[in-house]
C-alpha cells in the first residue's frame, strides 16, 4: 500500500472546554509531536510538555501521548497533544502540525484509517459515528455493542454458513450428471432453510437497531384547530409552534426533538387535514402526507367534542403507518369524559386536555412505552444498525430465496449465482467478507480430483 500522509484534527468538540485535543495519525505523527514538544516521546507514556511554535515560544503546556503503530486507534502512529481547551490555542496547534507536514483530516478519516488498517470493520466504524451521535443512553449502549462487533459477528457467522452452502453447490455442479439428491441435496436444503431463518432473525434485529439509532419518528396529524400545535408545544415544553383559534394556522412542517424520561422522540407538527384550503394550506397538507410515509407513529389529534370530524381524511392518511395513537383533545370542554378503551387493531386512545394538562401524564407514559418498544429493550443485547445494513440483509434474504427455488429445479448454476450475490450483499455490511474468497476456500477444503 502506498505510504499514507499524516492527518491532524482537533478531536474535541468545538468551543471552549477544560481540555482540548489535537490528534495526529500517520508516519510523520511522532516527528511532528517531538518537534512541537522538543522532546522524545515514549510510546504509551503521558509526557507533560510545553507545546512550542516555530520560534520556540510556548503556545501552551499540556500532555503529549504517543501510540506506536499498530497499537493505536487508527493502527498507525498516533500522537495526541492535550492542551487547555481554548479554541484559539487548539487552532494554533493544528496550524503548527500542518506547517510541520500534516494535513487537515477529513470528517471520519481517523476511523476510516482504522478500517483500512483492519482495526474496525465498516459496521463498527459506522457505530463509532452512531455512538457519538446517540441521542440517549439506550442508543449509546446499543451503538457501543455494534462497536464491540456484536452485529458484525452475527453477519460474519451468516456469511460462513453461506460459504459452506456455496462450496456444497459448486462441488455438486462438478457432478452435474447426477441428481442433486445423491449429492447431499437434503442436507443442502436443510442448511439453506436454517440460514434463511437466521437471516430473518438478524434482519428483524437490524430493523430494530435502525429505529433505535434514528429514534421514534412521530407525526402529529388531525383536522384543523384540534390542538396539534398546542400538543407539540406541551411536549416540547416551549412555545415552538404558533397556536391560534384560526383553523389552518400551521402550514409548514415543524420538527422538534423531545425527550420523554430520557428517551428521544422526533415529533413533527403538520397542517390540519381538510377538504379545500388555500394553495399554501394544500401544500402543507401534501407535506404532511409525505411526512407520514416515514412515520413510525401517527399521533392523531381530534376535537373531543366531535371526534368524527375529519376522521375519514385522517384514516386515509395514516394507512401504512405502523402505530397509531388517537388523542381526543379539549376534554375540558366536555361535561362527561368517557374512558377510551384501546381498540382491537392495537391502536391506543387517550382523552386529554392540553389546556388543563389532564391526561398528559398518561400520554407521557404511553409515548415512553412506544418509544422504548420501538428499539427493543436495550438490556437484551440490542445493537444499532443503519438503513444500509437492513437493505443488504434484505437483498441477501431475497437472493437466498431465489437460490432455494433454483435448487428445487436442480438449476445449480443459477442457484450458485444467487448465492454469490447474497454473499456479496452480506459482505457489504462489514466490508470484510469477500465473496471472491470462494475459489481459494473451495480449493483448500475440497479435493475435487481433477
Ligand atoms: N484521549 C483519547 N481518548 C479516547 C480516544 C482517543 O483517541 N484519545 N478514542 C478514540 O476514538 C476512544 C477510545 N478508543 C481507542 C481505541 C483504541 C486505542 C488504542 O490505542 N488501541 C491499541 C492499544 C490497546 C490497549 O492497550 O488497550 C490497540 O488496540 O492496539 C485507543 C483509543 C475514546 N477515548
Ligand atoms: N379548550 C381547549 N382549547 C384548546 C386545547 N388545546 C388547544 N386548544 C385551543 O384550540 C385552538 C387551536 O389550537 P392549535 O394548537 O393551533 O390547533 P392545530 O390543530 O394546530 O390547528 P391548525 O394548525 O390550524 O391545524 C387554540 O385556540 C388553542 O388554544 C384544549 O385542550 N382545550
Ligand atoms: Mg397547528
Report on this structure.
- This protein is flat.
- The strands form 2 sheets. It has a 6-stranded mixed sheet with strand order 3-4-5-2-1-6, covered by helices on one side. A 6-stranded mixed sheet has the order 8-9-7-10-11-12, with helices on both faces.
- The protein folds into 3 domains: 2-117, Gyrase A, domain 2, CATH 3.30.1360; 128-212 and 386-431, tRNA modification GTPase MnmE domain 2 (Four Helix Bundle (Hemerythrin (Met), subunit A), Up-down Bundle), CATH 1.20.120; 227-375, Rossmann fold (3-Layer(aba) Sandwich).
- The protein has helices at 29-37, 87-99, 109-116, 122-133, 137-147, 150-173, 185-214, 228-236, 279-293, 311-317, 360-375, 387-408, 412-430, 438-445, and strands spanning 7-10, 17-25, 47-52, 58-67, 78-85, 103-104, 216-221, 254-260, 263-269, 297-303, 323-329, 348-351.
- A hairpin with a 2-residue loop joins β8 and β9.
- α4 runs antiparallel to α5, α6 runs antiparallel to α13 and α12 (387-408) runs antiparallel to α13.
- By secondary structure, it is α/β, with parallel strands linked by helices.
- The chain is built from 14 helices and 12 strands.
- Mean pLDDT is 90; it is low at 445-450.
- The structure holds ligand FFO, guanosine-5'-triphosphate and magnesium ion.
- Residues 228-229, 241, 249-250, 269 line the site of magnesium ion (MG).
- Magnesium ion (MG) is lined by residues 228-229, 241, 249-250, 269.
- GTP binds at residues 225-230, 244-250, 269-272, 329-332.
- K(+) binds at residues 225, 244, 246, 249.
- Keywords: Cytoplasm, GTP-binding, Hydrolase, Magnesium, Metal-binding, Nucleotide-binding, Potassium, tRNA processing.
Amino acid at each position: 500500500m502506498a505510504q499514507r500522509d499524516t492527518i491532524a484534527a482537533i478531536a474535541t468538540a468545538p468551543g471552549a472546554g477544560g481540555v482540548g485535543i489535537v490528534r495526529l495519525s500517520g508516519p510523520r505523527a511522532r516527528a511532528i509531536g517531538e518537534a512541537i514538544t522538543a522532546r522524545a516521546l515514549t510510546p504509551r507514556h503521558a509526557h507533560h510538555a510545553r507545546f512550542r511554535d516555530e520560534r520556540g515560544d510556548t503556545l501552551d503546556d499540556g500532555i503529549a501521548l504517543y501510540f506506536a503503530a499498530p497499537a493505536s486507534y487508527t493502527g498507525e502512529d498516533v500522537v495526541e497533544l492535550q492542551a487547555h481547551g481554548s479554541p484559539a490555542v487548539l487552532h494554533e496547534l493544528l496550524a503548527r502540525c500542518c506547517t510541520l507536514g500534516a494535513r487537515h483530516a477529513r470528517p471520519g478519516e481517523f476511523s476510516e484509517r482504522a478500517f483500512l488498517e483492519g482495526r474496525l470493520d465498516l459496521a463498527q466504524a459506522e457505530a463509532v459515528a452512531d455512538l457519538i451521535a446517540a441521542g440517549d443512553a439506550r442508543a449509546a449502549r446499543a451503538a457501543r455493542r455494534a462497536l464491540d462487533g456484536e452485529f458484525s459477528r452475527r453477519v460474519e457467522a451468516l456469511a460462513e454458513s453461506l460459504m459452506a452452502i456455496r462450496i456444497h453447490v459448486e462441488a455438486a455442479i462438478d457432478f452435474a450428471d447426477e441428481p442433486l439428491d445423491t449429492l447431499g441435496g437434503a442436507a443442502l436444503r436443510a442448511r439453506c432453510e436454517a440460514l434463511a431463518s437466521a437471516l430473518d432473525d438478524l434482519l428483524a434485529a437490524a430493523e430494530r437497531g435502525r429505529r433505535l439509532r434514528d429514534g421514534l419518528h412521530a407525526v402529529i396529524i388531525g383536522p384543523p384547530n384540534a390542538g396539534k400545535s398546542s400538543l407539540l408545544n406541551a411536549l416540547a415544553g416551549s412555545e415552538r409552534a404558533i397556536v391560534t383559534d384560526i383553523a389552518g394556522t400551521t402550514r409548514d412542517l415543524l420538527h422538534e426533538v423531545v425527550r420523554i424520561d430520557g428517551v428521544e422522540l422526533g415529533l413533527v407538527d403538520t397542517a390540519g387535514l381538510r377538504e379545500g384550503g388555500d394553495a399554501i394550506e394544500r401544500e402543507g397538507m401534501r407535506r404532511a402526507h409525505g411526512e407520514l410515509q416515514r412515520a413510525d407513529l401517527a399521533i392523531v389529534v381530534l376535537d373531543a367534542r366531535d371526534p368524527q370530524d375529519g376522521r375519514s381524511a385522517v384514516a386515509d392518511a395514516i394507512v401504512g403507518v405502523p402505530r397509531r395513537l388517537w388523542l381526543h383533545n379539549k376534554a375540558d370542554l366536555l361535561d362527561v369524559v368517557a374512558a377510551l378503551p384501546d381498540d382491537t387493531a392495537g391502536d391506543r386512545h387517550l382523552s386529554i386536555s392540553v389546556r388543563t394538562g389532564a391526561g398528559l401524564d398518561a400520554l407521557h407514559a404511553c409515548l415512553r412505552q412506544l418509544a422504548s418498544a420501538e428499539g427493543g429493550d436495550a438490556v437484551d443485547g440490542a445493537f444499532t444498525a443503519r438503513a444500509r445494513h437492513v437493505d443488504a440483509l434484505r437483498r441477501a434474504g431475497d437472493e437466498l430465496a431465489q437460490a432455494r427455488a433454483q435448487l428445487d429445479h436442480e438449476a445449480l448454476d443459477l442457484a450458485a449465482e444467487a448465492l454469490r450475490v447474497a454473499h456479496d450483499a452480506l459482505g457489504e455490511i462489514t466490508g470484510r467478507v469477500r465473496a471472491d474468497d470462494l475459489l481459494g476456500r473451495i480449493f483448500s477444503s475440497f479435493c475435487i480430483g481433477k
